Amino acid sequence: MTGTFSSVSSALSALRYNQVVMDVASGNIANVATDGYARRRVIGESVGAPDKPAMWSRYDGHGDGVRVGSLDRMVDPLLDLRARREHGNQSFLDTRAASLARIETGLGEPAGEGISAAIAEFGASLHDLSNHPDTSSVRTQVLANAQGLADAVAVQRRNIEAEEGDQRMALLADIDETNALAKDLAATNEAINAARLSGTDASALLDARDSMALRLADLTGGTAKENGKGGLDVTVGGVDLVTGNKAGRIDVASGVAPDGTADGGPLVLTATAPGGSPTAVTGLRGEIGGEVTLLTVTLPGLRADLQGFAQQLADSVNAAHQAGFDAAGAAGVPLFGVDPAAPGGPLVLLVSDPQALAASGIGGGPNRDGGNAKALATSLSGPERAYQQLVTGFGVAVASTRQQAATQQNLTTQVDGAREQLSGVNLDEEMVTMMQAQRSYEAAARVMTTLDSVLDTLINRTGLVR
């Protein structure tokens, strides 16, 4: 049979429980704008009968109040797993799309500011030369436009090389951040284990753990799984980067010097597991994977295509130029050279004297023939088509990468929305929770007041006759 003092105990448990509920709701509201914060929820449970019945005692089923059963973080491990995967893919595509967009802007096509415009100007001056082969100013303009074409090619090469330099620096910075995060995550794993062993709430540590794992996925596309001690173990490229309270590291074995310059070797990354030896890793995603792909495939391929165009242009123009004769009637010499190592390369103008332009198709002495200048203009058509194909192919690659990034963004946004719906703080919901707890607290306090009055009557007034 439940006694009066048991009711006091039940009311006291209600006061304590609802105080915890209000404290937790207040904490949720305070962290509404905190990145990585997962809202907490108090799970209450009824204080019922003892686990083992006594021989001469029987539980009456009225209950003995309420207590905090658990303080749960509102997270879903499956959603977290999906989020890390989608964020790794998103970062990989975004890194590539941003780099290609910068290269596309530098091409100046079809705005009339790039190589196509330089070819058109060079061709127009050659047509003028065919009509006025004996005019010095026209010959000078041809050489100026030829140099302008070489400069336009050089600008594109410098744009590509500058982007490669930026990606190398970004790669080094991202690797440093990855290694620092791996150490921090290992330390957090150890702190989580210590908190659990001591019975301390580890919610804040778990928030930090999940945030670091998500950032590691952004950087490397690495996968994370929870170990038996509450921490997360991270694997990158098939190599353990974080195992419990131990951290490995990622390094650049070759391809990029510590100062961010190219060292002349192929780009190779290695991952070292805790207590292990360096292992070459490939197929990374995330920002680092995007940077590696740009440095090993995309940008070198574009640079090779540009050099191939320069070689085709030089071969075509030189063949036509060497078939003609200069102002003195001497056979023409190569007009362009291709030297990837030249400061102004890869296309280099070899002729500096306007009179050395082989505009004439008739040799043997000075004449006013401009027939070979027409052939020179015609020789530009093949390289021009090749360059347009190069630009078109690059444009298709840029558009495809953008489309992939946009499609991936839909998936990333979807999983982020699901996580936010579960883990994010809803102010309206928290206010309702606080109001419910407040009213419950007031009701429990009223019960205490009533019981106090009852006890006062029983203790101080029983037997009194007025």
UniProtKB/TrEMBL annotation:
It comes from the Bacteria. The lineage of its organism: Bacteria, Bacillati, Actinomycetota, Actinomycetes, Propionibacteriales. This is Flagellar hook-associated protein 1. It is found in: Bacterial flagellum; Secreted. InterPro entries: Flg_bb/hook_C_dom, FlgK, FlgK_helical. It comes from Nocardioides seonyuensis. It holds the Pfam family Flg_bbr_C. Residues 423-460 form the Flagellar basal-body/hook protein C-terminal domain. GO terms for molecular function: structural molecule activity. One of its GO terms (cellular component) is bacterial-type flagellum hook. GO terms for biological process: bacterial-type flagellum assembly. Belongs to the flagella basal body rod proteins family. Keywords: Bacterial flagellum, Cell projection, Cilium, Flagellum, Secreted. The keyword RNA-binding does not apply. Residues 100-336 form the Flagellar hook-associated protein FlgK helical domain.
